[in-house]
Write a structure and sequence with these properties.
Distance between the termini: 21 Å
Number of strands: 13
Bound molecules: thymidine-5'-triphosphate, magnesium ion
Shape: globular
Strand content: 15-25%
Order of helices and strands: EHEEHHEHEEHEHEHHHHHEHEEHEEH
Structural class: alpha+beta
Largest sheet: 5 strands, antiparallel
Number of helices: 14
Oligomer: single chain
């Protein structure tokens, strides 16, 4: 699952007055007013040639006066991302978040190995994300992570592509090598130089000739990918931290109002901590002011799973922060626990064996 033009879509959802316009999310370097690069652009802006990685100045020339340029509000995108990951976690056997807007889901058990069931799960996920967050995503379903990922890129935005085992060869036949994860512009040029344009050609290419150009490891890896071979499991990386950030009803420096919000967020965080069965050894607060500047404060303690200890620590940190920043009004606040210890391994061997034999 990969969300469509993620940062731009989130901004479009947050601010309906810009809906339908070309939207460009910028990472301003601060050197001069327009220096920096584009993080992403919505599909309207992509039609004008604006895309991730190009300089903001170039994007402004292409976008003319119609396009909307916004600074990258990464903390907010992380909040939305986290909510979506939690939403889809319940729909699969195992979830592996691959980036802020991308995740692998194992549905081997949930679908009982039946492709139509997997399709229904994917449709339900798309529906849920649309209803709860107002965002679209593209999903690929395949016999392994590699094919699923390539399938998710096959149709975008709002796509759903299924590539069954027996369809893998056909899917790869005409697939541009640039669509293979790990092949960037440079590698593609090298391969094109050898007359290799499609995944199938790469899969069938002479291994020695490839190794000469790319080195042994890379050549082997890319050739396996080009053949759709991948047996890596969908593995949840254990979270290093759990946090909740929320927006205050209005910008304020009133410590009671701010702390009340932190208390509310902590209740939600507690549910997640119980689900993950963690102890924490560090508590932090996140303070985002009216200029969207983010500051954090944290302290370390003996390991505990008691939310009240996290809350009294957060209270102390907040008091200190506000004393040090008199008059600073906050727009969003958050609480975070980190240095986590897991009470027991999440996946029992029985669970793993069952998944293995379902394959
Ligand atoms: P992507 O999933 O690569 O891009 P996207 O979601 O904007 O568009 P698509 O519909 O093609 O999936 O990346 C996810 C987010 O990561 C993206 O919204 C912004 C951020 N990002 C950067 O900040 N810099 C980059 O160069 C890229 C590629 C992405
Ligand atoms: Mg995306």
């Amino acid at each position: 699952m990969d969300l469509d033009s993620f940062y731009a879509a989130v901004e479009e959802k947050r601010n309906p007055s810009i809906a339908g316009k070309p939207i460009v999310i910028c990472v301003f370097s601060g050197r001069s007013s327009d220096s920096g690069a584009v993080a992403t652009a919505n599909y309207k802006a992509r039609e004008l040639g604006i895309k991730a990685g190009i300089p903001i100045t170039a994007a402004k020339r292409l976008g003319k006066e119609n396009a909307v340029f916004l600074p990258n509000d990464i903390n907010y995108y992380r909040e939305v991302s986290e909510r979506i990951m939690e939403l889809i976690e319940d729909e699969c056997d195992a979830l592996e978040q691959a980036s802020i807007d991308e995740a692998y889901m194992d549905v081997t058990q949930k679908s009982r190995g039946i492709w139509e069931n997997a399709q229904a799960i994917a449709e339900a996920i798309k529906q849920k994300i649309k209803e709860q967050e107002g965002l679209t995503c593209s999903i690929g379903i395949g016999p392994n992570k590699l094919v699923a990922k390539m399938a998710s890129k096959a149709k975008k935005p709002d796509g759903l592509t299924i590539v069954r085992e027996q369809e893998v060869a056909g899917f790869l036949e005409n697939l541009d090598i640039r669509k293979i994860h790990g092949i960037g512009g440079k590698t593609a040029e090298t391969l094109n130089g050898l007359g290799i344009k499609t995944a199938k050609q790469l899969g069938n290419a002479n291994a020695l000739a490839l190794e000469e150009k790319l080195g042994k490891n890379k050549a082997r890896l890319l050739q396996e990918k080009a053949r759709g071979i991948d047996d890596s499991p969908v593995e949840q990386k254990q979270a290093q931290q759990i946090s909740r950030i929320g927006t205050l009803k209005e910008d304020t420096n009133d410590r009671e109002i701010i702390f009340e919000k932190i208390r509310e967020l902590a209740q939600d965080m507690k549910r997640k901590m119980e689900k993950k069965k963690v102890f924490f050894r560090n508590v932090g607060i996140i303070a985002i002011d009216t200029g969207l500047e983010t500051q954090t404060r944290s302290e370390t303690m003996a390991e505990t799973d008691d939310i009240n200890i996290a809350l009294s620590s957060a209270r102390r940190l907040l008091e200190k922060f506000l004393d040090e920043n008199p008059g600073k009004r906050l727009r969003r606040v958050g609480i975070r626990v980190s240095n986590l210890l897991y009470k027991k391994e999440q996946k029992s061997l029985g669970d793993f064996a069952q998944r293995y034999f379902m394959r």
